[in-house]
Specification:
This protein starts with 71 loop residues before the first helix and ends with a helix. The protein is built from 35 helices and four strands. A four-stranded antiparallel beta sheet has the order 1-2-3-4. With 763 residues, the chain is mostly helical. It has four domains: 115 residues, no CATH class; 152 residues, no CATH class; 117 residues, no CATH class; 163 residues, no CATH class. It comes from Funneliformis caledonium. Keywords: Membrane, mRNA transport, Nuclear pore complex, Nucleus, Protein transport, Translocation, Transport. Belongs to the nucleoporin Nup85 family. One of its GO terms (molecular function) is structural constituent of nuclear pore.
């Protein structure tokens, strides 16, 4: 490699460094593929009316609009998702719907999603069709930024859950159940904490409201899974009690409307108010007995008139009897629950019979039916319970609580029959998930969770996979969660595959976040089978703007054995510092990356600067680099050459002569620079003769003459002549003598004189 190029103005050339990642072939990723080009994707704004034009496609079947070519910058910002739009189909189908993503033209953190496909053939002409398009404006930054604290907290729980599987407590069934419940509680507490933060947010815009609803749904699903699948310990009491508590916490009774409040306020007698009794039924159904007792006590009327004394006493007696029934309801945890429950049901029947017997005295059919209805609900009458329930969830859990208080989770499927005869289930994802959890179809429930939130799906599936799957998931293989064909995998393999796929899908958006990218990679590290592949794919695309972040990226590479990626990233960091001329940092990173050629180029640059100016400009650079015998040879040479000049300056001529011989013998520097080293020998040999000090041996002199012959080789003649011409500009001013020439004659002459001096010393 020549120290000088033919063009003096371009001694060194470097490729400009950029953080822009190379083009990605999305076809290698699952769920992402190429997409037909259309003018509608390249309009000026995603929000403008012209974004969706009716004439984006011409009327001919399969023909695309012409006359528009998107610019390169716009094309780079577009990523198309499955499924593609098929132009040659004449019928409507799910496979003919497409989903696309386009980044907003003015706000880099926003993007636009759109769904489109053919309209039914009955609505269009035979030879043409129009697009049915729906556009959704979304934000990439808001969703993740608003959850940053939540993601950090839940990742700590996720990590503790991963460590728990290798602990001693996990081997014992009872301890494992306790650990699972504790982990689940930690997740729920994190969700509740985030809900409180959202509720305290003064900005009640659409995004906050949507987030609030999402997290409430997540809490309801997670808590129900905890009750149905994780709870085995006695400290969590019975299923019916937990379910009614879950209903009241996740789906509490709504507040009375303004009309209902006015009706209650204006009513002269609450006993005859429909709103009052409707509210009381709800309290009884939901097991909110303290509030129900307060309601009943509010209609106790003290007897003041002889005219109604018998009637009021009877009503008060019935109210007190109902209150007594409510208070005496047996505790589910009692050891003699069966006997106590039978006795209590008999008591409710007696009060009901007493009410019917005194109906003549009551002279109030509405009041009589209301008391009987309450007693029937307490006794677990299905018709009474379902008639006063307003939803299938309320009806199911009220039926479990009042009629089947000691049922097990496996018994609930048999109870669901009459529920769905009377009630319909909303088609939203949350309702479908809850329905399938009660049906013990957790695989189908998880399939619907992906429509609610990726965090919920990934973390819930991870926790379920840590449990005995044959017992908890009922032998389900979770195939619906796996997108591609998995016929060759066993059940356990497919479950692990589903878990990793969900974790990867959740982690991918975090990798591009400015603060959560480390957590994203940590999630990938917990995917034993596929995580390393994705880490290797994304680690090189993380932009690093400071050394601290760079070191964190390198640590991820080291922890996962990504040697090649570590070298590439280190090289990129070195190139970045090369652009801003921080040569010390550049050389350190190039040494870590093993880039010997790059280091050689930088070292030659410093040698070139010395030839041009005669000054050592790399002294501070070399001092900042830890150099040892295992360091790069070019860096070692530069370090030794710098040491030579320091020794000369301090007048340690013996040591300087030894270092100079080492530099020449190493033959590391460019061949033409050997002449510079030979020029350095001249003042040392003169000093030795003048002071009669033996600085060189005869063998050294012979080597000097040999290197003179090699430097004058015709192959490097041009570059050698240029080097000498540059040195002549400063050599006399710096060194005080003119004895440098293209033919190295001063060196040869001094070698002859020094030989005679050595011969004289021997005598």
């Amino acid at each position: 490699m020549s120290l000088f190029s033919d063009d003096d103005s371009k001694v060194m050339q470097f490729t400009p460094f950029t953080f822009e990642p190379p083009p990605i072939d999305y076809s290698q990723f699952e769920g992402v593929s190429s997409f037909p080009s259309s003018t509608q994707f390249y309009e000026e704004s995603a929000n403008s009316e012209t974004f969706l034009k009716e004439n984006v496609l011409t009327k001919g079947k399969g023909r695309q609009a012409e006359g528009y070519e998107p610019n390169i910058k716009t094309q780079k910002q577009i990523m198309y998702l499955n499924p593609p739009l098929v132009y040659d189909l004449d019928y409507w189908s799910n496979s003919n719907q497409g989903t696309g993503v386009k980044f907003h033209p003015t706000r880099s953190e926003d993007f636009t999603c759109y769904v489109f496909g053919k309209e039914p053939i009955e609505k269009v002409k035979k030879e043409g069709y129009t697009l049915d398009t729906r556009v959704y404006n979304c934000s990439l930054a808001n969703d993740i930024d608003s959850r940053r604290v939540f993601y950090n907290e839940t990742f700590s729980i996720f990590r503790e859950a991963s460590r728990a599987t290798s602990s001693k407590e996990w081997r014992e069934k009872s301890s494992r159940e306790k650990l699972l419940c504790d982990i689940s509680w930690s997740y729920v507490n994190a969700i509740v904490k985030h809900i409180k933060i959202l509720q305290e947010n003064p900005n009640k815009d659409e995004h906050i409201q949507r987030e609030l609803n999402t997290f409430r749904d997540m809490m309801a699903i997670w808590e129900l899974c905890r009750i149905m699948y994780f709870i085995k310990s006695e400290r969590y009491q019975r299923l019916s009690t937990d379910l009614v508590t879950w209903l009241n916490e996740c789906y509490p009774m709504g507040a009375l409307t303004e009309e209902e409040l006015n009706e209650v306020r204006e009513s002269p007698n609450l006993r005859n108010t429909v709103v009052f009794w409707s509210r009381l039924y709800k309290l009884i159904l939901r097991g909110l007995f303290p509030q129900a007792i307060n309601f009943l006590r509010s209609i106790l009327i003290p007897v003041e008139s002889d005219k109604y004394i018998n009637r009021e006493i009877v009503i008060n007696d019935i109210i007190q009897s109902v209150i007594k029934c409510i208070k005496s309801r047996p505790k589910i945890s009692s050891h003699d629950t069966d006997l106590a429950w039978r006795n209590w049901l008999s008591q409710c029947s007696c009060v009901q019979c007493l009410t019917l017997q005194k109906s003549i005295i009551l002279e109030n059919k509405f009041l009589e039916e209301s008391f009987v209805k309450i007693l029937k609900i307490l006794a677990g009458d299905p018709d009474a319970i379902l008639s006063k329930s307003s939803s299938w969830l309320e009806g199911l859990i009220s039926l479990i609580y009042h009629k089947y208080p000691r049922c097990d989770s496996s018994d609930i499927k048999a109870i669901l029959g009459p529920i769905f005869v009377r009630f319909s289930v909303y088609p939203d994802a949350t309702s479908q998930v809850l329905k399938r959890i009660f049906y013990q179809r957790i695989d189908e429930a998880l399939g619907y969770c992906k429509y609610i939130d990726s965090w919920l799906l990934s973390h819930l599936l991870d926790l379920l996979c840590k449990v005995d799957l044959d017992e908890i998931i009922g032998g389900k293989s979770l195939y619906p969660l796996v997108k591609e064909s998995m016929s060759s995998l066993t059940k356990i393999e497919s479950q692990c595959h589903s878990r990793e796929r969900c974790l990867i899908n959740f982690a991918e958006p975090l990798l591009t976040h400015s603060t959560l990218w480390q957590i994203g990679f940590k999630y990938l590290e917990h995917c034993e089978k596929y995580g390393k592949v994705y880490i290797e794919e994304f680690i090189g695309k993380v932009p690093f703007d400071n050394e601290r972040k760079f070191e964190k990226i390198l640590k991820i590479c080291e922890d996962n054995g990504l040697i090649f990626d570590e070298k590439c990233i280190t090289t990129a960091m070195g190139t970045k510092y090369m652009q801003i001329k921080r040569y010390g940092s550049t050389m350190i990173y190039y040494m870590r990356a093993g880039k010997d050629e790059n280091l050689k180029t930088i070292c030659n640059m410093f040698l070139t600067q010395y030839v041009e100016t005669g000054k050592i400009t790399f002294e501070e650079v070399i001092d900042s680099i830890p150099v040892d015998k295992d360091s790069n040879e070019s860096v070692n040479f530069l370090s030794r050459y710098r040491l030579y000049h320091s020794l000369i300056q301090d007048e340690f001529f013996h040591q300087a002569a030894q270092v100079l011989v080492e530099c020449l013998r190493s033959e590391i520097s460019p061949k033409e620079f050997w002449g510079v080293l030979l020029f350095h020998t001249v003042p040392l040999m003169k000093h030795g003769r003048r002071k009669e000090i033996k600085l060189f041996e005869k063998i050294h002199i012979d080597e000097f003459e040999h290197y003179c012959t090699r430097v004058l080789d015709r192959k490097i003649e041009d570059s050698w002549i240029k080097l000498v011409q540059r040195m002549k500009r400063w050599h006399y001013k710096e060194c005080g003598y003119f004895n440098i020439s293209e033919d190295l004659k001063p060196v040869k002459n001094e070698c002859e004189r020094y030989k005679k001096f050595l011969s004289k010393l021997k005598r």
